[in-house]
Amino acid sequence: MSDDRPRTSTRDHQVLREQLTQWLSGHLPSPTITEFNAPATNGMSSETILFDAHWTDENGTPASSRFVLRLPPDPNSEPVFAVYDMPRQFNAMRLVAARTDVAIPRTVWLETDASALGAPFFVMERVDGVVPPDVMPYPFGDNWFFDATASDQAMLQRLSIEALAKIHTISASDPDAAFLRIDAPGDTALQRHVNDQRAFYEWVAADGVRSPLIEQAFAWLDQHWPTDEGDTVVSWGDARIGNMMYRDFTPVAVLDWEMAGHGPREIDIAWMIFLHRFFQDLAEQFGMPGLPEFMRVADVVATYETASGYAPKSLQWFVLYAALRHAIVMFRITRRQILFGEAEMPENPDHAFIHHPTLTAMLDGTYWAKL
DSSP labels for 143-202? Predict the structure, then answer.
C-alpha cells in the first residue's frame, strides 16, 4: 500500500493550536492556550478539541475558561458524511437552548470564514460529566453505567427521554427553526427525511458496491409507510445516551447535532431505542447478558407519553428505519476501514455492517419480541 492511504486525521495539532490562538486574539485580549487535546474518538463525526484559554480582562484581572472546539473532520480522512454544516449545528444548539431548559452547553463563537482554521468551526463552553462508553460498549460491562443500580439506570433512562420530549416541544413551524428543514424531495418532513437517507446511501454506494439488504429495507419502508406521520418537530437526529453527558445519572449536556432536522418525534424515539439495541445485540452475540431491561419499547413509550402527552405511533416502522439508517453509516465506515487498510469488503456486501442479522430479522418479522 502506498503512503497515499488516507488517515483518520491529517491535521497538525500544533499548527491548529497556533491558528486557534491567533484567531482567539480577535475575541479575547492577549489569550494563551494551555491544555489542548483531542479525544481519541475523533475522525468519525465533527472533530473535537478540548482547550483552556487564559487572558486578562479589561480591568487587568486574569481570567480563564474551558472550551470545546468543534470543526469538520479533515476531508483527507474520508469522513462518514458528505457534508458537515457547522452553522447548522451551532444554531440548532442555540435554538434548543433558547426554547427549552434542556442541558445544552453554552455556545460562544461561530466562525464561518474557513481561512482561520481551514474550515468553519464553532466554540462552546466545556461541561464536566461522564458518557456511557461506546468502546467498549456500555452493555459489555465494567463501566460506571453498567455497574450502577437498577434504580439509577432507570433514572438515567427517564431523564434522557424527558430531555428528548422537551426538544420536541419546538415545532418545525417555528420561524426560527426553518433552517433545519431537510433539503430533499418530498411533500412531508418524513418523506424528505427518508429521501435524504436514500441520497446518503447512493453517495456511499457510488463506487458500485451496493447492499441488497439496505435496498430491501427501503422497499419495505415504502410498502408499510405510516398512515399517520405525526407531528413535525425539531429532531435531534442522533438521539442516544452516548451523545449525552451525565452527573449523578442526570443529563448535563446534550451533544452532537450533525443530524438535526425536521421530522416526526418517532425518528428520535426509535433511534434512542435502536442504538441501545445495537449494543445489546452485540453483547448477547458474545454471550454477555448486557442490559436487556434498558430502553424497552413499552417503558420508553410510557415515559415519553407522560412527559409530553403524546403517544408514539408506528414504532416498528421507525425502529426498522433507525436500523436502516445505522446500516448506511456502518456501510460507509467499512469503506473507510478498507481505505485505511484495516478491512476488506466482504464477499456479501450486506455483511459490511455488523447488524445485518438484526435488519434481516426485522424484515422477516422475527425480531420484534426482543423489544
Answer: STTTTS-HHHHHHHHHHHHHHHHHHTTSBTTSGGGGGG---SS-SSHHHHHHHHHHHHHH
* CB neighbour burial string for 155-179, b if at least 16 within 10 angstroms, e if fewer: bbbbbbbbbbbbbbebebeeeebee
For residue 57, indicate whether it is catalytic. no
Cell of residue 209, nine digits = 458496491
Tell me: domain 13-125, CATH 3.30.200.20, correct?
A: yes
What's the pLDDT at 200?
97
Mean of per-residue pLDDT scores for the chain: 93
Residues 111-126: pLDDT tens digits?
A: 999 999 999 999 999 9
Give ranges for CATH 3.30.200.20 in the chain. 13-125
DSSP E strands: which ranges in the chain?
A: 32-37, 47-56, 62-71, 107-111, 121-125, 233-235, 244-247, 250-254, 261-263
CA atoms within 13 A on the CB side of 338: 14
* Grid cell for residue 173: 413551524
Considering the candidates 74, 238, 268, 281, report the single residue annotated as catalytic.
Answer: 238
State the architecture of 138-370 in CATH terms.
Alpha-Beta Complex (3.90)
Give the model confidence (pLDDT) of 127-183 as tens digits: 999 999 998 999 999 999 999 999 999 999 999 999 999 999 999 999 999 999 999
Read off the C-alpha cell for 357.
Answer: 442479522
- Judged against a pLDDT cut of 90, whether residue 362 lies above it is answered with yes
